[in-house]
Write a structure and sequence with these properties.
The chain is mostly helical. The protein is built from 14 helices and no strands.
Length: 302
């Protein structure tokens, strides 16, 4: 079992390192060259457009759920309505450039497109519902640049226009700040994936008991209780599929896991109230279950 663990760990590491490097670099470029003024110009409007904007931005923005929280609260203080904020909090941790590339590598194009479309539908749904909810005012937020609030970015120069300094800033974020922010979670995800793939009782449990509707319930509960960033969760879910978890249930886990961290839950409860939190979790649970079931029923060859 120990030998199998290290073999699986080496396999996952070798497979993902090149993809992660590309994802981190693209994330640094996006982080550096999307001005904060753009968010303030397009996201303060009424209607569905801000929901669409923030959902799409959340999909490509290179931050995990913890990095999205100060941005979300700051946007709310600047006048953005609850709907777009909830859409942003769903879409941002659910996917990222690196997570999309890793998903494409492991699960293929159809699965990746379906996952992204599901996240978009979920973001739009929670956003539209959120615009009709009442909630308490946000009392405090980070007053500086929200992008700088993600971490200790000592080498960032995105308030200047000097290209060499901005290149340094891109590389600093890509290969220092971002790995520091989610690197531990990625490593934990790789280790858990290797454990799941090499520990035989997991396979017996999965194939014997966690089938049919039980596989979806297991994936939802596991995702709600255990937070792993979107990139790290892909390899863990891949390990579960290799020992018997169906692809529909794996989608449930990939969606519910990253968007329901304890940090997000606590901040939503504090800033917007328990009612908003319950609706937030219900929408995530229902859409993830329905989308997973539909994928397994209609897109998996019988």
């Amino acid at each position: 079992m120990i030998n199998e663990f290290f073999l699986h760990l080496a396999h996952y590491t070798k497979e993902l390192v090149p993809v992660l490097a590309i994802g981190f670099l693209l994330s640094g470029i996006i982080h550096e060259f999307i001005p904060q003024e753009v968010t303030e110009k397009y996201f303060n409007k009424k209607g569905i457009l801000p929901i669409i904007y923030l959902t799409i931005l959340g999909i490509i923005l290179p931050v995990c759920c913890f990095g999205s929280l100060p941005i979300a609260v700051t946007l709310r203080k600047k006048g953005v309505r609850l709907g777009p904020i909830l859409a942003f909090l769903v879409a941002t941790p659910a996917t990222s450039i690196s997570a999309i590339l890793v998903t494409l590598k492991i699960f293929g194009l159809t699965y990746t497109i379906y996952l992204c479309l599901t996240v978009i539908v979920m973001g739009l749904t929670i956003g539209i519902i959120g615009n009709f909810l009442r909630y308490p005012e946000v009392n405090s937020s980070y007053e500086g640049c929200p992008m700088c609030a993600e971490g200790e970015h000592l080498n960032h120069y995105h308030h200047t226009k000097k290209i060499p300094q901005r290149i340094i800033s891109v590389l600093s974020y890509s290969f220092i700040d971002l790995p520091k922010e989610i690197g531990i979670e990625i490593i934990i995800g790789l280790i858990l994936a290797a454990v799941v793939a090499s520990f035989k009782p997991f396979e017996i449990l999965m194939r014997k008991y966690l089938v049919g509707i039980y596989s979806y319930i297991f994936s939802l509960i596991f995702g709600l209780l255990m937070y792993i960033c979107s990139t790290a969760s892909v390899v863990l879910v891949s390990a579960f599929t290799k020992i018997g978890l169906n692809y529909g249930a794996s989608l449930v886990m990939l969606i519910a896991g990253p968007v329901t961290s304890w940090g997000t839950i606590l901040v939503i409860k504090k800033e917007f109230g328990i009612k908003v939190l319950i609706i937030y979790l219900l929408v995530i649970s229902i859409i993830s279950l329905v989308s997973g079931y539909l994928y397994q029923a209609f897109l998996i060859p019988k």
